[in-house]
Design goal:
The chain is an alpha/beta fold. It has helices at 24-39, 70-78, 80-84, 98-113, 132-142, 166-171, 200-215, 218-223, 247-270, 276-285, and strands at 4-10, 44-52, 88-93, 117-121, 146-149, 161-164, 185-188, 192-195, 229-232, 287-289.
Length: 290
């Protein structure tokens, strides 16, 4: 059976020398706990942790005199053996963005582990209870480009947790940098103007759909759908019980609130002549479930 390399983004904004205090409890109970759980699984080949060290980013941690941020130091203190033997690779990203951070992590996963599958993962996902072995078997059997995990409200794979074929991502040049905050905004009730950003997973799915449409005759595309993506499982624990009024809670609620608006904008980018509902139906026609 194929094994996967986990690629996750993490940071505690503004922490470091002269900044905010690093939250060790969050790191140990959420970030380190998840990594430890991953390393116990037979399906895990390795773990790549991408940390925000871009001093131009408002979400960055502060780099100290040794060229490290608090999360880098915490990783080295908590997992010294695993880092030394190559099970874990800690990467300080100096060009942070929703997509660029993941792209750098996936490149490391391919170079360091020569992996056939990448598991994108947010720290707040509880790994216990997720049947990753069955998910990998299903994805391999169906020869899918991406496999998402079902959760209420999720219509498509989310990088909160998803399995990707890195070869498929390479064909669309990875996650689009257009999903990083490039100055565009959308108007969202209760939040006002927010960045048109994120949802790089959905845009990648649209680009894979467009590529499939360009490769197949239209009649075959419509009459004999060939699934290239899937959704797996029916129960997923996502720990988003952030402290009320915290920056972390605000960013989470804002991202959830803007999701549909961002998806509609991306659909216009890739399929400008199709209604959003038709784009979503085309995606549904080329999906399989387990």
């Amino acid at each position: 059976m194929k094994r996967s390399v986990s690629v996750g983004r993490t940071f505690q904004l503004g922490t470091g020398v002269g900044g905010k205090e690093f939250d060790w409890q969050y790191f140990l109970e959420i970030v380190a706990h998840q990594i430890s759980s991953l390393l116990k699984l037979g399906t895990t080949e390795g773990v790549v942790v991408v940390i925000n060290g871009d001093q131009k980013s408002p979400l960055s941690e502060i780099i100290d005199g040794n060229g490290k941020t608090p999360s880098v130091v915490a990783m080295e203190k908590t997992f010294p053996e695993e880092i030394a033997n190559g099970q874990i690779v800690v990467h300080l990203c100096k060009n942070w963005g929703y997509s660029s951070a993941l792209n750098e992590g996936i490149e490391i996963a391919r170079n360091e582990f020569d992996t056939e599958l990448v598991l994108t993962l947010s720290p707040e996902i509880e790994i216990a209870g997720i049947e990753l072995d069955k998910a990998i078997e299903f994805m391999t059997e169906k020869k899918l480009s991406v496999l998402g995990f079902q959760r209420e409200g999720w219509q498509v794979p989310r990088n909160t947790i998803a399995l990707w074929d890195p070869d498929a991502l390479e064909k669309i040049r990875g996650f689009s940098l257009q999903c990083d905050d490039i100055g565009k905004t959308v108007l969202i009730p209760k939040f006002g103007k927010v960045p048109l950003a994120g949802m790089e997973d959905y845009l990648a799915l649209l680009m894979l759909l467009k590529r499939l449409l360009e490769m197949l005759p239209e009649i075959l595309f419509k009459t004999s759908p060939n699934p290239f993506w899937g959704m797996f499982g029916d129960s997923l624990e996502w720990n988003v019980d952030f402290p009320e009024g915290s920056e972390r809670e605000y960013r989470h609620l804002m991202k959830v609130a803007r999701q549909e608006a961002v998806m509609k904008e991306y659909a216009k980018w890739i399929f400008p002549d199709l209604p959003y509902e038709q784009v979503m139906k085309a995606l549904s026609d080329h999906c399989c479930y387990l």
